[in-house]
Amino acid sequence: MLYPLAWLLATSLKPADEVIASLNLLPSRLEWSNYKTALDGVNDVSIWRLLGNSLLIAGGAVLGNVISCSLAAYAFARLRFRFRGPLFAFMIATIMLPHHAVLIPQYVIFNQLGLVNTYWPLILPKFLATEAFFVFLIVQFMRGLPRELEEAARIDGCGPFRSFFKVVLPLTRPALITTAIFTFIWTWNDFFTQLIYLFDPDRFTLTLALRSFVDASSTSAFGPMFAMSVIALLPIVLFFLAFQRLLVEGMASSGLKG
User: Fold this and answer.
1) CATH of the domain at 178
2) Could you list the residue ranges that cross the membrane (predicted)?
3) How far apart are alpha carbons 111 and 102 in whole angstroms?
């Protein structure tokens, strides 16, 4: 399982003539210039700008999903309203809807709004609770919370919104952390959607920049490309390591413990 990762790390330090020709895992000499080339960026755009663009999109997606999906989940899990059951079933059914089926209508809408070649098409839908998987995940977690806590808050004069922010939301932290981690990883690794909406190299992310190492003659700078792949992998690894305990807790828990 770890061999591909070890191969990626080793190849990022191989000379250009050994990347394809040699089957050895370890390079004959360490080619640190691969990382120097990767840090210089592509298309006159530094890697720090690319990294900032990726963090902006991933951070906006995380914030949008955590806010909108938690609000939608609270409505389905705790509030009583007409057609709650059919609406929840319809939302769950959208999980089976392929992303490519709605890509063209979404592109037409954002193009008419003049938002193509901006970050809004990649961030704005996240604030509209469009990720049914995360809504379902948080709903299942909220259903395991004791209703007596909200009833006590209601006796003290709390309305639905105040009960949500003061009582339910703090107890839902493991599910929210799980949502944040998966959203960050999926958005960071997303290539197709960013390729559709972003044209200006100054707005490229690390994912799009990796493709730019292939020039018009179809020759590739493999060493720097793998070096940039390692750099692009580091934020995901660090993000996961920082929150892995809460990730396991969020996936395994169904309510309060202890």
Assistant:
1) 1.10.3720.10
2) 55-76, 88-110, 122-142, 163-188, 221-243
3) 14
The span from the CA of 214 to the CA of 51, in Å, is: 19
Residues making up the chain, counted from first to last: 258
d(CA 147, CA 80): 13
175, 137 contact by CB (below 8 A):
yes
Secondary structure (DSSP) of 183-202: HHHHHHH--HHHHHH---GG
Q: What is the pLDDT of residues 171-217, one digit of tens each?
A: 898 889 889 989 999 999 999 999 999 999 899 999 888 877 665 44
Asked if residues 153 and 163 have their Cβ atoms less than 8 Å apart, the reply is yes
pTM, rounded to two decimals: 0.85
- Residue 254 confidence (pLDDT) above 70: no
pLDDT in the model for residue 255: 42
* Domain assignment of residue 43, yes or no: no
Sign of the dihedral through C-alpha 201, 117, 134, 174: positive
Report CA torsion sign: 21, 26, 27, 33: positive
**What value does the mean pLDDT of the chain take?**
85
Give percent of the chain above pLDDT 70: 92
How many separate domains does the chain show?
1
Structural contact between residues 73 and 139, judged by C-beta atoms closer than 8 angstroms: yes
